[in-house]
Amino acid sequence: MCPWPPGDAGDRWRLVRRGTFRWRGTRVLSESVSLTSGLDVAARPSGGPTPSNAPRVDLEWGLQGARHLGPSADAIVVVDVLSFCTSVTVACERGACVWPHPGGEEAQALARSLEAVLAGTRSHREGPSLSPTSLLDLPARSRLVLPSPNGSSLTHALMSSRCVVVAGCLRNAAAAARRVAGLRRVLLLCAGERWGDGSVRFAYEDLVGAGAVIERLSAQVPGLVRSPDAHAAALAFRDLQPLELTSSGAELVERGFAADVELASQVDVSEVAPVLVDGRFATAA
């Protein structure tokens, strides 16, 4: 199990009035999480009595969600479909190593110390950026520092965790599930988007990205117990809607990044499950 710092139970998305999603969240912190003590986590209902050692999958949102269920997890699959985890997967398909970081001057210093390329923002039109399509021709075995305000910041905060940390998305759902299938407690951790005040906003694309991993994991692990949140995500994936119709997808299309949305919408086209080791994502053995 991986220890986690004490904290509140975390805000979580919930269904409000016939399927309308609302999200109450808190800012995803960029600093590393202190791993000095644990957090008591109450068992969540799973639809009936199950053996205490039964494999289980849960779903939460953001850093507070990690603090809530992280102490009982053997693996955390971070999900940021538009676009950090999709970009990491594409880069690792090219044999690259990817360092997550919140960004700023420290990211620049990290890139210099590693003799790595610092990826630009999505609007950066030349060279690697957060845009996954910009990484399709990344030179093999590149070293890439990839900042982002959501998935990368969240993953950066998980660096001290002793859990297995995997980058998951629609593109590599089956591969990510295979990587964690032998572990007893798996947490799907959705990054979400941000409101103007920095708080976490529900993101449909991350819900269904997590649901895709959960569906694949359920097929691979007999007797897997799914929390209600995880079960809802799996059901949402079964009725997958076009990502270009989501708030994030529509914004990207309007900004001229329809190809990014199309690439991120592809399901199970990658055999790569990037794993966080020594501060960087690399292809799982």
- Mean pLDDT rating: 85
Q: Sketch the major β-sheet.
A: 5 strands, parallel
Number of helices: 9
CATH topology of the domain at 52-94 and 157-283: putative 2-phosphosulfolactate phosphatase
The CATH superfamily of the domain at 52-94 and 157-283 bears the name ComB-like
What characteristic shape results from the CA principal axes? Answer: globular
Number of E-type strands: 14
Give the helix level as a range of percent: 25-40%
Strand proportion, as a percent range, falls in: 15-25%
Low confidence ranges: 2-46
CATH class categorisation of the domain at 52-94 and 157-283: Alpha Beta
CATH architecture of the domain at 52-94 and 157-283: Alpha-Beta Complex
Span of the ends, CA to CA:
21 Å
Radius of gyration over C-alpha positions, nearest whole angstrom: 17 Å
Strand order of the largest sheet: 8-4-9-3-12
Element order, helices and strands? EEEHEHEHEEHEHEEEHEHHHEE
How would you classify the helix and strand content by structural class? alpha/beta
